[in-house]
Amino acid sequence: MAVLIKLYLIFFKIGLFSIGGGYASLPLIKKLLCEGTGWISLTEFTDIIIISQMTPGPIAINAASFVGTKVHGIPGAIIATIGSVTPSLIIILIISFFYFKYRDLKYIKGVLSGLRPATVGLIGSAGISIATMAFWNGTIHEFDISKLDYISVFIFIISFIILRKFKIDPIKVMLGSGVLGVILYSLF
Amino acid sequence: MQKENIYKTLFLSTFKLSLFTFGGGYVIVPLMRKKFVEELKWIKEEEMLDMIAIAQSSPGAMAVNTSIILGYRLKGIAGALFTLLGTVSPPLIIITIVSVFYEWFKQNAIVNLMLKGMQAGISAVIISVVFSMAIEIIKGKRYIFILLMALVFIGSVIFDINIILMILLSAFVGLVDTFIQDIKKSKNIKGGN
Known about the structure:
The complex is a heterodimer of chains A (188) and B (193).
Chain A: H1 2-17, H2 26-36, H3 42-54, H4 59-102, H5 106-135, H6 150-165, H7 170-187
Helix pairs in contact in A: 1-4, 3-4, 6-7
Chain B: H1 2-19, H2 28-39, H3 45-57, H4 62-98, H5 102-107, H6 109-139, H7 143-157, H8 163-192
Helix pairs in contact in B: 1-2, 1-4, 3-4, 7-8
């Protein structure tokens, strides 16, 4: 029981302080889980990152499930996961309450009108960084044309054309690009 | 019956969305847009952008935050709990299984090739949705917002400026713009008289 409470509290903390999403939470996860509790080794920490890249879902939840399972089986995984999303749930519900209540006020509308274009810009930036990671096999800051992964660029272009031309479900495009990846990388 | 169906749809669609959020939280944007804006027409595009702005400036994972707001918007706190459950279940189930077969999974060549291909597909999906959304902003013909969009993009891609800082500045720009529009309007009314 004590272990479960500790799991909950530690992941609550990770959830609370991982602002800016994804990899922003890594240093804190490392500090609390490797150094603080000794629940996982440094190798396992690296494994969590690799698994997170290979599986869907946010890294904080992946870490919670992985560490929770290791420390206290399936109940551990569930408790750790609940812990990591509790801060989000509380904070987001409070903000949502005010957003839906006051979004029609003139000055709130003004604030939102500035946030929308900024959000589009930020999503664009996320798209670019995933694309460069795909095209240069993870070495983001090396735009060496000779190291370009042509298969990846090809899959990108095909996917992009299909998405723009047909109103197809993005999930199908993602699955299709995975299949195309297996075929093309095996052939060439 | 009707109510049950809405909760079921909320759970199942967020479950499916979460199952495909590879490569970071932003993938949720095109997926959510397709399902809730285009197919179900339960939320408007503008609203979705607001939700994403809230989600990314709050603590926690983007996909989780966005689902909570979505559920709350459609069915209050109960709705938020259903979408939250839908979003955390896939990673919870998958990781619990994967952590058992980890060594096999890590060295599986086919899994690796598939993920490599998917990474290219995912970036195409995100960039395509950004195209559509950027066109909407440009169609609005407010040059200040078109400029703001371009600056935030450049600020993030090239200069790696802190996201929260850019969000705060953009909110400020929107607010100041509203004040300026107000002053212009009241001047016009006076001029008209």
